[in-house]
Specification:
Strand order of the largest sheet: 5-4-3-2-1-13-14-15
Largest sheet: 8 strands, mixed
Number of helices: 11
Number of strands: 15
Shape: globular
Strand content: 15-25%
């Protein structure tokens, strides 16, 4: 059996239950596996500030591990919470994305210093705040407020519309922006080299862990290339069909300790 050295986990609907918590069983399994020298890495569309509390709960700081926030636009070394790499969206790219979202009637937000910055209103506008716990700041005009690089742009709308636009974009907004969905009502825009899979490969190269020694676990479209990169790609039981199709195995869902069961299956005690 392959000796796996790293487990990379998506957060929402993977590590976290439907009420946005880690189950005690899964948390304990992840603490235990790190004692065997296995690195646990979190990879999420969430902003950094929405990931650090969970990373600390899992003792990623003590185990000198990493988090990939904003789908990988930022890589943070949890040892000292320093920013290792950053691949942002520029101001001119932001303006083009904002105009596209406005013309398609999408609610738009972005991030400055771990605050969620937005203009406008939407029925789903508070979901990102509820997930991450980060404060929201309303501005008169987002395009004129943002004058420098941002880690990513998030647009929000009803599922059918987001799905339709996501199919039209097919992963690309222009030549230099990567577009994907993380939840069915979130359409996200990042630097073209930013996706969980691409950035995870960069991290693995940096710390000398081969892809075949990595397990990745996820449930949604922004997890796809990460599961394809890994030696072992695991879909959650609640994952969408596209993710189940690229996965090497499927575990239980996020409300039934899918991660804990995966650890029990692939690590000899």
């Amino acid at each position: 059996m392959m000796e796996y050295k790293m487990i990379v986990l998506d957060m929402d609907d993977t590590l976290m239950t439907s009420d946005n918590k880690m189950s005690e069983g899964t948390k304990q399994a992840l603490l235990d596996i790190q004692k065997q020298g296995v690195k646990v890495v979190l990879a999420s569309g969430r902003p950094t500030g929405g990931m650090v509390p969970t990373a600390l709960e899992l003792e990623l700081d003590r185990n000198e591990s990493y988090i990939l926030s904003y789908n990988g636009a930022h890589v943070i070394s949890m040892k000292d919470q320093s920013l290792l790499t950053s691949q942002p969206v520029t101001k001119s790219q932001f303006d083009a994305i904002y105009d596209y979202c406005q013309s398609n009637g999408l609610f738009v937000l972005t991030y400055v210093d771990d605050e969620i910055i937005y203009d406008g209103e939407h029925e789903y506008m508070n979901i990102e705040h509820d997930l991450t716990g980060l404060p929201m700041k309303k501005v008169d005009n987002l395009k004129s407020f943002i004058q420098s690089d941002v880690p990513k742009v998030l647009s929000v709308d009803y599922e059918a519309h987001i799905s339709q636009l996501n199919q039209q974009l097919d992963g690309h907004f222009g030549e230099d922006i990567h577009a994907t969905t993380s939840k069915p009502f979130f359409l996200e825009f990042m630097h073209q080299n930013v996706s969980k899979g691409q950035v995870l490969k960069q991290l693995c190269d940096m710390i000398n862990i081969p892809a075949e020694a990595v397990i990745c676990v996820g449930d949604s479209n922004n997890d796809k290339d990460m599961l394809e990169f890994a030696g072992l790609g695991i879909a959650m039981g609640n994952a969408n069909e596209a993710i189940k199709q690229v996965a090497d195995d499927i575990t239980d869902d996020n409300n039934n300790d899918g991660i804990k069961k995966m650890i029990e299956k692939y690590f000899n005690h």
